[in-house]
Design goal:
Helices cover 61% and strands 2% of the residues. By secondary structure, it is mainly α. The protein has a 3-stranded mixed beta sheet. The chain starts with 7 loop residues before the first helix and ends with a strand. This is SERINC1_3.
């Protein structure tokens, strides 16, 4: 083994201490595996729909983490110290006698916005394929439902292999084409995100109103406090945008002034609509909480769009600084280096909002699985000694 890894004194050190380290690592791995199994056994039972949404949420979360790593500052410089990468200048080879300089790999291909495009391209194809497979499936008794709710090992393996293969796609116009597809997808996701936030606001309001009607009136006070706090945030954010995102003189950034004013008008309109007697008659639980949440969200979208404005003299000087005095370049410009791509505040807040929406969508029970739905194939924990994932749907 000394000849296989490292020679001389380094090999002797490895033979004396390396295997002890591996043995310790193997023991720790066994302990962690047992602990993970015990933790899973302690989890409560859940429906197939919930467990599947959680797993798909995990896939999206891992993809997001991988994308952040690919855009991490200094990754390109770090990869120069890895064998098989261009720019690797150290004389130490992993295997003695093996010349890695003869076939270096350009590790720049696995960093930057183009690498993120490749990863997201595969994830998009995966979810589109799953959507096509599930067309017409209305019951877990359908054989295709097993593909949706299971085969997680093969799914992860296929995704990983396809991601590796995506890095062999020639550059060509891939980056430009996928950029425009990503813009369309981002627009659609904003509407989905808005729908999730509206649903969250309604569930929040209904829950607190129900508590207030059945118990202490303090719930009404808390509801009003949260609503007016969010409206206060909207007013403060709008004021900051007018001060910092409209230029140094009046009329210098008319487009910015229009968007900020239009957003404020929308906030007022949705608030008045929610208080209209017809709306109150249709849904008595509608109040100021729902429009305040929506107003805060669309104000965030306004700030996010203004922060990405190409007009540098109109850009806000507050909350747009990056982690390394640079910003992410969202468009694939010629000659752009991945080393110049960094995370800015707008990107970080966007990831947080995205993560919260994904988390809510995974734990939120669908409307068709309420109290009137019949749980079939459920086995109580007392009978099995473990947890079950059951189908929570009506039998035909």
């Amino acid at each position: 083994m000394e000849l296989l890894f490292l020679g001389g004194k380094s090999g002797k050190y490895w033979s004396n201490h390396g295997w002890n380290t591996l043995s310790l690592g193997g023991g720790l791995a066994c302990c962690f595996t047992s602990a993970a199994c015990s933790l899973c056994a302690c989890c409560p039972s859940c429906s197939n729909a919930t467990s599947s949404r959680i797993m798909y949420g995990v896939i999206l979360l891992l993809t997001m983490i991988l994308s952040c790593i690919l855009l991490a500052p200094g990754l390109q410089e770090y990869l120069k110290n890895v064998p098989f990468c261009k720019g690797y200048e150290t004389s130490l080879n992993i295997i003695p006698g093996l010349d890695t300089a003869g076939y270096p790999f350009d590790c720049q291909e696995v960093t930057g916005y183009l690498a993120v495009y490749r990863v997201c391209f595969i994830i998009t194809l995966f979810f589109v394929l799953m959507a096509l497979i599930m067309i017409g499936v209305k019951s877990s008794n359908d054989p295709r439902a097993g593909i949706q709710n299971g085969f997680w090992g093969p799914k992860f393996i296929i995704i990983i292999l396809c991601m590796i293969g995506a890095f062999f796609i020639p550059r060509g116009d891939f980056g430009v084409v996928w950029m425009y597809i990503g813009m369309i997808g981002a627009l659609l996701f904003i509407f989905i995100q808005l729908a999730l936030i509206i649903d969250f606001a309604h569930v929040w309001a209904e829950n607190w109103v129900s508590h207030a009607q059945n118990g202490s009136k303090g719930w009404f006070v808390a509801l009003a406090a949260c609503s007016f706090s969010m409206y206060g945030g909207v007013i403060a954010a709008t004021t900051i945008l007018f001060i910092f995102s409209t230029g140094s003189t009046a009329g210098e950034c008319k487009l910015h002034e229009f968007f900020i004013s239009f957003n404020l008008i929308l906030c007022v309109i949705i608030s008045l609509i929610s208080l209209h007697p017809k709306v109150q008659e249709a849904n008595p639980n509608v109040g100021l909480l729902q429009p305040s949440v929506i107003a805060l969200y669309i104000t965030y979208l306004t700030w996010s769009s203004l922060s990405n404005s190409p007009e540098t003299n109109c850009k806000s000087g507050i909350f747009v600084g990056s982690l390394s005095n640079s910003t992410i370049t969202p468009t694939p410009t010629p000659g752009h280096s991945p080393a110049n791509e960094k995370f800015d505040t707008q990107s970080i807040i966007g990831l947080i909002v995205w993560g919260l929406c994904i988390l809510y969508s995974t734990v939120r029970e669908p409307s068709g699985s309420g109290d009137d739905s019949e749980e079939v194939n459920e086995i109580q924990d007392e009978e099995t000694g473990g947890q079950r994932v059951y189908d929570n749907e009506k039998t035909s």
